User: What shape does this take?
Amino acid sequence: MTTHHTRPLRLESLAFGGDYNPDQWSEDVWDEDIRLMIDAGVNLVSLPIFSWPQLEPEPGVFDWGWLDRILAKLWHAGIRIDLATATATPPSWLLRAHPEMLPMDAEGHRLEFGSRQAYCPSSPVWRENVARMTRAMAERYGDHPGVVLWHISNEYGDHTSRCWCPVSARHFRRWLKDRYGDLNGLNEAWGVNVWGQRYTSWDHIETPRRAPGPGNPTQLLDFERFSSDALLELFQLEIDVLREITPDIPVTTNFMSMFRDLDYWDFAAVEDIVTDDAYPDPADPIAHVGAALNYGLMRALKGGQPWLLLESSASGTSWRDVNVPKAPGEMRVDSLQAVAHGSDAVMFFQWRQAKYGQEKFHSSMLGHRGERSRTYRETRELGRELQQLREVHGTRVRSRIGLVVDWDSWWGSTAAESLPSQRLNWAHQARAWHRAMHLLGHPVDAVRATGPFDEYDVVLVPNLYIADSAQAAALTSFAEQGGRVVVGPFSGVVDATEKVHDGGAPGPLRDLLGIEVDEHWPHTDGVTEQVTFADAAHDNPFWGEWIDATDKTEVRGCYASGELEGLPAITRRAAGDGSAWYVSAILDDAGLVAIFRDVLAEAGLPARDSLNPDFESLTRSSADTDYTFALNHGREPLTIDVPPGARDLITGATTGASLELGRFGVAVLATPRADQAPFLTLRV
Ligand code: GAL
Assistant: This one.
């Protein structure tokens, strides 16, 4: 796959709007839509995402009229269009003509029509039709002056990210041939001498359907890689058509935050603009902490370039077991959090709340009560507020901390059933490490294990199960040049074909970390051991390791209970001008906070004393101005110390030495750009 030059989005201010489904309404509703959109400050809408059957009711017979009419109305109202290629879901006539296009699950059952995304990503018929529809859309609307962005498909992999059907199996074999060349290569890679799995013909290879016992881990890992690539091919296929016909219009597909099934580094590399759909659960008081890491990934996927929050909810969703609404003010702070994290848009699913279908109980900008609905009042106020924030458009987030996000390690450490413990979960581990940095007051960018690390003082590697020498070299050179690397448990265990590194973990990271892992030591459920760090005991649920430190490595923390009592748990090794830490245990928040506090001090970075997850602050900068966002994600008011003399973009006021942030309160403080971004703290 090639990385293409990034085409800019032709919007001068922050985008505001949402998914728009005019084909679910009679045309007499459209004028009211437009009037209320203008009133709310909407300047961008996404359509027609799921409308293929309404656009091509019969094979080859198109009905463009309704789309022509609504696009014209939007254009005349000054509302720009994120035009979907309408390929998110196939029409029934296509599926009934080609039933082999329906996806199949791991048990061999076909999934039926009646929801959405009922397609096998590898199906040649689907691909051919997707290309045909994309071409038809591009030819018809590529010159439309309102179209500023192509919205390809919708949330790839949301419902169908893996398919185990015979067509997928054929595609999987081709993918494996490309990867391994010949059957010997494949047999060697998959370690087939274990449990008698030698293949003598390519045709004998299947997708890893349900088998009598645990599957071959490398086959499972390759299937994860293949499945991500299969959807990436589908994405590339549409991009190629669009670049041919509309070379100047940027392309995107909306991501689903930190989504396990697709390697978003690969997807972002082929598109122009990263867009994300974010649905933090209002029932979870620290959902915003998870969102912060997701946004740290979104801005990192294209090297810090602003991204767009393309979907979010004005209040409740309708796909959770219990869909708690957002309290008054909560949607605003959620939205401004995304802006703080580098989004140049606040967009929603969806503009007008549906009257029927699967999503009629999903909140929208315009609720069932129309302009009298609370969500409309609140989104309209937000639309006005975003206009006051137009200066932040195009600015970039400043972060000193990188956190390695590596899909191979995520898949490898979770796809197999035969692991030391199923309780070591890549995402939990990454989220816990990020949460500790959030508590200490630092935003975190995602980064690849090979860097680039130039922007960072600290690089966190919560888990790198699959590690190679290029990653080890990049991390080592970062440390030697003065960086601090912190590596988590179960790292450097295997190579890309899941073969254990010679001498065991941490494999290629052994010299950098100055430790050797003798044995992984997971705990059974309900057993929590203790680890001491800086004289305090911390809970160590789930996982420990028997490690030996080599002579130049300092032991900074030890196991304090259980079989590992007295053995090293947390180590630090000086490396050039920097250092490399190893945290062999899974620790509670307090334990991670204590370790990271020391790492930050070593790196010369500030840290908060008072740990309140509700308080978040981070800075977007232009060449001459720092815009520091202060967000209160909770209901209790907070008092924070701020730089005096800053201009609050929202109130227009000039700050004194402290600022009161009410329930769900937000301030955006402009100050002249400084070498280090302002670091705001809570007043206690
Ligand atoms: C997204 C999807 C939208 C809508 C939304 C509801 O996953 O892209 O079409 O279904 O969820 O939250």
Residues 408 and 503 are 21 Å apart (CA to CA). The mean pLDDT is 97. DSSP finds 17 helices and 28 strands in the chain.
